[in-house]
Design brief:
Length: 506
Amino acid sequence: MRRGAGVLMHIASLPGPFGIGVFGEEAINFAAQLKRQGMRYWQVLPFSYPGMGNSPYQSFSAFAGNWLFIDPRSLMRRNLITAGEVVASEYNVNRWRIDYDYLRVNREELLRKAFSRVSSELMNEVQDFIKRNKWVDDVALYQAIKDDNYQRPWWEWQDAELRDYNKEALKKIRGNDNYYFHAFVQYIFISEWCEIKRKINELGIEIIGDMPIYVSGDSSDIWANRDMFLMATDETKKANPNLIFDKVAGVPPDYFCADGQLWGNPIYDWQKHIDSNFDWWMKRLEMNYCLYDYVRIDHFRAFSTYWEVPATALTAKEGVWKQGPGMKFFEAHNKYFGSSDKLIAEDLGDKSPDVDILLDECGLPRMKIMQFSFNPNDNSLYMPHNYEANCVAYTGTHDNNTLLGWLWEASEAERKECLDYCGFEGNNWGDGGTHSASCRAIIKTLWMSHANCVILPIQDMLGYGSDTRMNIPGTATGNWVVRFTSDDLSAIDDNWYCEINRLYRR
């Protein structure tokens, strides 16, 4: 990656009148603000439709987009809805929090109205879109059947042939109105984002995307590709007839959670993926490269070794390490795409030597988190003076506390080490806001580092506290709902960021 700086801001967190950030003028305005600040990168969270706990990391598809991001104004420009219907879709009850329960109902009603007015020309475009992308067909089938089954998971569907992806039985679903509705939604999502991304790129801003390594159990991916995952066998079902998966994913106890994190995602049958030359993965990455300029692979270490937990376990403590596909995956990737210079490895957490060996061999940039570094008795690799050029360095990620929140909650020794290291003088370290002296001292220290790319969460740019934290790992509710207003963003001192980007040649 070229030396530069950027901001981490979820699309959902953008300001705007629709209760959630959308692919509209607000996204362009934010990219233009990044340009004024001398930034080069905008990092986003996954574009997946949010699943359990409203998490974009638990979606019904690894390919499909979050239709809540579709801008109602773009539907009006296509003559699919009226100006009055756009106004009716506005939601200004709370500009700082996302009400997913309301949006799921309101936005689906709006999209169905739009679909009812689709022209024959637009329908032809949707049909061509389906033909070019097998995943669209799978998603449209899956969603249409799920609608008929009261949103139950695929393993509880009434029709056994549909449940088991019987190709003959699926013909009666393929092509009905609801099938085309779900395909239409994905077509609008992709075409709208591609237009917005083109304008963002023209401003000189590149998009860093985020690809969860695992997929949700209740997803079109597993329903249509069960042979690629470790499903419960007849033998394991003898003890538990209701078992769907034999093993599930998670991580062992770590900095974030004493019991580890039991994600519950199904485990890949890596040998099947190797035998197919990682065809499913290459299609998935092809889609991601369409959406983003760079792709951050969440939980990269699973390509080396991954934590496998019995599906019946109560916590992730009961798991064991298993061998992943290793360099075979990246050899297939480089053969398919030519290189891996658009990938970033999220390599956080406890690492064994095999992870570093794989990272050295594939050459992907690693991640560094400044918040992890200030143990007074340790020369941590997360301290900025230890950063290599080939890395992406952050004050914190979406899983961390905000910078100001961390300062307040850190031990006195850690806080002193951090403030001394960053050259902060004074006694007002707890002051927040966009001009927070303590936050600026830490940000400036990060900018000085050798890291080719430095990323600042928007919360840290604003100097906000822990009440604006995006996610607390290991908790099921209250996450992924934070938004910011145009007033919040306009309060940022663009000139200060422009100057430190100039000063440190970013």
